[in-house]
Structures are given as structure tokens and as C-alpha cells.
Amino acid sequence: DTGVSQDPRHKITKRGQNVTFRCDPISEHNRLYWYRQTLGQGPEFLTYFQNEAQLEKSRLLSDRFSAERPKGSFSTLEIQRTEQGDSAMYLCASARATSGANVLTFGAGSRLTVL
Amino acid sequence: QQQVKQSPQSLIVQKGGISIINCAYENTAFDYFPWYQQFPGKGPALLIAIRPDVSEKKEGRFTISFNKSAKQFSLHIMDSQPGDSATYFCAPWALHGSSNTGKLIFGQGTTLQVKP
């Protein structure tokens, strides 16, 4: 297992288009997190899953954002009707549910540019 | 994100010097205090962490000092090296309700440059 994988690494889209990001966590990790990071800022929490259950969503996650983890393995984050303000790095992280639950392993991120 | 305030925003240190980054927090429910390191084009990675029942933890050149009463913790990098040049985030752990789940709340970050 090589860590947390995110795809695509870069996405350029036009305003109003929909985009989807995929995250493959470390295989034995059953918690999965999404964060958003804008230039020069720290990552902001968006949502997290334990197995397939979405346990918490940030108020930052507007109705245009939806995250799923249908089989408790990989996750997708979809942004509908993208806006220029959505331009950011979208980071995925995974963690165990037991010992080390508060240690998150991050992927390299998916960078979104909305024109 | 206002729950966590990090300073300074940027720091330039000579090779061999000491780098000190500070973090102040408001939420007393935080119960785990890590520092993450991020290189350009990479995600953040855990560097060192401390639990609130300990006042100091050292791992190699990296030390965390924790002051529970002041709600502050700091990262000290001894003998700083050019390879330490990165962005550092404090990211205390916020518990979710009464469960053992939770999330990291990141500070704004400190960009460290170590000059050779």
C-alpha cells in the first residue's frame, strides 16, 4: 500500500461545470476525511466518513458539494456548478478508527482551477 | 478556523539556528496537539504530537512545548537545516461529541525558510 491516492491531481474547468475527485485511502483505514486548502492558508475541514457513514459535514460544504463513500473504501467529492471561489486544493486523508485515530495520513491533493 | 492562531506567518532562519513556531487555541475540548509539515505539491504529514498531560516532547531535533493553562503550544526545531524548509501547521484534534471520532483544526501555517 503506497498511501492515500487522489485523482486527478489537477483539474481545470470552466465556471458552471461539475467536477468529481476520487480518493483511495490506505486499505486498513476506515476513516476518510476531505479538507480544502487555498493558497497560503491551512486546510479547512469539509467532511469525514467512518466506513460508509458520513459522520460530520462542515458548514463550508454547500449544497453544491456532495461526498460519498459507498462501500466504505474509496470516496468521491463532487462539486456541481463550480464557481471561481471553489478554486483550491482538495485534500483527502485517512485514519484508523482505533489506536492512532487522530493521526491523519494525507494524499497529495487534487488541485482545482475554475476559470 | 479562528479557534487556532499560529505565529509567525513566515520565518527565515540560518542553517544551524533554532526555529520557533507558536500556536494558540481557544477550544478547551482539544485533546491532542500535533504539528504537520507540508512541502510544496504534497499533502501535510505528521511531524510530532503531544498529549495534554505532558508539557514537553522531544523527537530528534524537534520539540513540542505545551502550556495547558495558557492554551498554547510551540514547535522548536533545533539545528535547523535547509531540508526543513517547508510550511508548518499546528492542528489540534477536536473531538466529535462523546465519541472517539473527531477532526484536525489547522492553523494558518508558518512558512519556514532555512538559509544555507
Count the E strands of chain B. Answer: 12
Largest sheet, strands/sense/barrel of chain B: 5 strands, antiparallel
Round the mean pLDDT of chain A to the nearest integer and report it.
93
Largest sheet of chain A: 7 strands, mixed
Task: Report the portion of residues of chain B in β strands.
Answer: over 45%
Structural class of chain B: mainly beta
**Residue share in β-strands of chain A:** over 45%
Q: What radius of gyration of chain B results from the CA coordinates?
A: 14 Å
What global shape of chain A is seen?
globular
The succession of helices and strands of chain B, N to C, reads EEEEEEEEEEEE
Chain pair with largest interface? A-B, 26 and 26 residues
* Average of pLDDT of chain B: 93
What does this structure look like?
The complex is a heterodimer of chains A (115) and B (116). Chain A has 115 residues and is an all-beta fold. Chain A has no helices and eleven strands. In chain A, strands 2, 4, 5, 6, 9, 10 and 11 form a seven-stranded mixed beta sheet that branches. In chain A, a hairpin with a 6-residue loop joins strand 7 (65-68) and strand 8 (75-79). The N and C termini of chain A lie far apart (35 Å). Chain B is mainly β and 116 residues long. Chain B is globular and about 50 Å long. Chain B has strands spanning 4-7, 10-14, 19-25, 33-38, 45-50, 56-59, 62-67, 72-77, 86-90, 93-95, 102-104, 110-115. Classes of the chains: A mainly beta (115), B mainly beta (116).
Write the layout of secondary structure elements.
The complex is a heterodimer of chains A (115) and B (116).
Chain A: E1 5-7, E2 10-13, E3 19-24, E4 31-37, E5 44-50, E6 53-57, E7 65-68, E8 75-79, E9 88-95, E10 105-106, E11 110-114
Parallel strand pairs in A: 2-11
Antiparallel strand pairs in A: 1-3, 3-8, 4-5, 4-9, 5-6, 7-8, 9-10, 9-11
Chain B: E1 4-7, E2 10-14, E3 19-25, E4 33-38, E5 45-50, E6 56-59, E7 62-67, E8 72-77, E9 86-90, E10 93-95, E11 102-104, E12 110-115
Parallel strand pairs in B: 2-12
Antiparallel strand pairs in B: 1-3, 3-8, 4-5, 4-9, 6-7, 7-8, 9-12, 10-11
